[in-house]
Amino acid sequence: MLPELNNLNSLRDTLVRAPGADTDASKAAQDRNGQLTKPPGALGRLEDLAIWYASWRGDAAPQISSPQVIVFAGNHGVTAQGVSAFPPEVTVQMVMNFEHGGAAINQLAKAAGAKMDVHALELDRPTKDFTRGPAMSEDELLAALRTGWEAVDPQSDLLVVGEMGIGNTTPAAAIAHALYGGEAADWTGRGTGVDDAGLANKTRVVAEGVALHNMAVDGLDILRCLGGREIAAMAGAIAAARVLRIPVALDGFICTAAAACLAQISPSALDHTVAGHQSAEGAHKKLLERLGKDPLLSLGLRLGEGSGGALAINILKCAVACHSGMATFAEAGVSDG
Predict the structure, then answer these.
(1) Is 281 in the active site?
(2) Would the pTM of this model clear 0.85, i.e. be above it?
(3) What are phi and psi of 2, to 5 degrees?
(4) pLDDT value for 337
(5) Which of 28, 132, 256, 303 has the largest count of CB atoms under 10 Å?
(6) 47, 163, 230, 305: which one is catalytic?
(7) 84-121 burial, b for 16+ CB within 10 Å, e for fewer?
(8) Alpha helices (runs of H) in the chain, residue ranges in sequence order
(9) Residues 66-88: tens digit of each pLDDT
């Protein structure tokens, strides 16, 4: 059972005290892997993924049967600065598309056998322009985190969280810049496809926002000052999965920025996650490197929605299927040499 998320400090404490992986299950999974009908290491990273997954599910021979994809949507006041090639109205239109099953993520979730849920967070009330003040109040941030926290199905056995929010690569870039420093240009990309002038403007906005909020205390404070409701909801869902020991396949740049806010609070906050893919947004590679996450896929995706994470579900399913379904040398009557 998840504890109630009553305030921001309760989330901070929960992340610090969250249970780790099951070491006994990990050892048993490693032992099983060593007895399977294959040369040692022949399945490469699939073997490591299966053992990692087993350790979080507490089962030496687990199955993946109930994956969940959750898409959160939010609108951003910073779009008034002209940071996106599309208007905010597209967020509402795409939520309707998700609900009617017409988006890419609907097809990818279905192909992966995942249940898909959509949560729109106050689309008629965008966050504030973070170049003029904090994007959210503490109460607004808590409400968004709680939406994600409560959206995770405790019966799911693998989670992917995605987003929809016109302009949201700008707050994601600002979050990364605030967390890891460097120059604003290091973290700012073209998002939905802005031209050179648009990129320069977007970089200016990121720099101004981070400079304005340079007294932010920790990852949650950075999320409050620079983030968005859908970004906070993703962070809440990832944190809930940590408590429930549900493995998570992270999506692209925006999802990873949300996750990075949690990692700033506790170094072990993302131990239950793998990077589903590396997106075409340039700073995503740098962000994954900061978090020590090696992506499973690199297909040039830059859609968001949870698309890359959903693709990774099938890789994880295959890793677990081989690990749990293969015969051991003894079972197959094959000599192990």
Answers:
(1) no
(2) yes
(3) -85, 140
(4) 66
(5) 256
(6) 305
(7) bebebebbbebbebbeeeebbbbebbeebebebebbbb
(8) 8-17, 23-35, 45-57, 89-99, 104-111, 138-151, 169-180, 184-187, 196-212, 219-226, 229-244, 253-265, 283-291, 307-325, 329-332
(9) 999 999 999 999 999 999 989 99
